[in-house]
Amino acid sequence: MKCEHIAELLPDYLEGRLSADQHHNVEAHLEQCADCSEEVVIWRKLSLLPVDQPGPESRARFEAMFEAYQAGRSNPPADDSHQGKRASTWNWNVFHWLRSPLGAMAWSVTLVAIGVFAGLRVAGPKPPSPDLAAMQSELTSMKQLVVLSMLQQQSASARLEGVTWSTREQQLDPQVLSALLHTLRYDQSVDVRLAALDALSRHSRQPQVHKGVLDSLQQEQSPLVQVALIDLMLEWRDRDAAHRLQELEQTPNLNPTVRQRVEWAKSKLN
Amino acid sequence: MTLAPDEDLMLQVRDGAGETLGVLFDRYQAPLFNFYAKLTGNRTLSEDLVQEVFLRILKYRQSYRPGTPFRAWIYQIARNARFDHFRKSPREMTFEPEMLPPVIPTDSAEEQQELELLQRALQQLPEEKREILVLCRFQELKYEEIAALLGCELNTVKTRIHRALEELRKNFHQLAKGTVLKKAQAAGNIPPRGGRHEV
């Protein structure tokens, strides 16, 4: 048997798909032909090459992309065609945004943060050096800058990302807090407002946040956000809770579910 | 407990249960990443492309038809995503071998060196040949699946595999020869070409 004949059979031989006869013929040829037998060896060695594994942040990135996509979808476009067109390219924008200079900066900051964090873990419980402390504070202010600029984005999903970013910091700059409060009050997307509420709820000890969040209940129109605010009011044991609930209850056309929640909250207060 | 087939999960995603996509992501992110990394040698780009694949699945989920093997479908999307990317930025087409992970040390140093050479030989293959070897050897796609993916006959796939393997062997040989020469030079047996012998 010649090499050309083997060439036809080799791929099946490698997968063990040949009949006993053909298999035997190929083996007989391989014993005599160095080139063909080397191909078989190389084929087997290929499986020993290392498998490339994605980085640990890949899953988180997927989740962010997924949430951003869903958030983009939950904002149906208005009637005018320009808006419609924008919404249809929206999801692409999310992805491209991640690659834009701002997105790249955001990712770089995350990576630096991961690096600093890993470095700190490796360094153990030793007190951080002044250099490291300076670097950390610089990093924090950079992150906050990123959050601030993300909250200004056109697309809801980008703003949502910005809010999610802010939750990664223990301490937030007053400027970021007020930007979040502004988002909670005025953002058009319910998802973004809910995320902002969630982010702010971690900073309830700051009087500015406490008051700002609960004051937003007055003008909030979405039942989802209203219910979340009522729950938060109970959780925080707000002194004015009874008064605020009373006010809300008098709102004309209040959603029945929200009304029920108000009743329930009042019963909890008493 | 048996795992739900990919196709069932994809139908759930198509019918609105978007969260189920997370399960498919967990199943496919590593193989897809490996596919891209072996083809491009660039980790960052490979991670971007994996995300792009899942974004496309979300966007085009309505186009998934019951009965379509999910694996074939996702690799189709993965190939398209790669083509589209390189169409937009063809300069990145070149392989970036420095991004590859080092070969894991094996028992013998010789074996390890062989694997490193093999990795380099694979990188030197033209894109098309590298792809077919990656698909059947690393992604473990069956020849029939590859034929459907590339839109060609089963026999064509086999011929292409053989040609790729042939070229891989030649590359490997070339590299191995170079290494032996270098080693000999290092040992002082053969003076470097045009170089002076320093004592």
Protein architecture, described:
The complex is a heterodimer of chains A (270) and B (199). With 270 residues, chain A is mainly alpha-helical. In chain A, 74% of the residues lie in helices and 0% in strands. Chain A has helices at residues 3-14, 20-32, 34-46, 58-73, 81-99, 101-123, 130-151, 156-166, 174-186, 190-201, 207-215, 223-235, 241-249, 256-269. Chain A is elongated and about 95 Å long. Mean pLDDT of chain A is 80; it is low at 76-89. Chain B is mostly helical and 199 residues long. Chain B is built from 8 helices and no strands. Chain B has helices at residues 6-14, 21-40, 43-59, 70-88, 109-124, 127-138, 143-150, 154-187. Mean pLDDT of chain B is 83; it is low at 192-199. The interface between A and B is large, with 36 and 47 residues.
Distance between the termini of chain A: 94 Å
* N-to-C CA distance of chain B: 70 Å
State the low-pLDDT regions of chain B, or none: 192-199
Provide the β-strand percentage band of chain A: under 5%
Largest interface: A-B, 36 and 47 residues
Q: Secondary-structure element order of chain B, as H and E?
A: HHHHHHHH
Poorly predicted runs of chain A are: 76-89
Structural class of chain A: mainly alpha
Rg of chain A (C-alpha, Å) = 30 Å
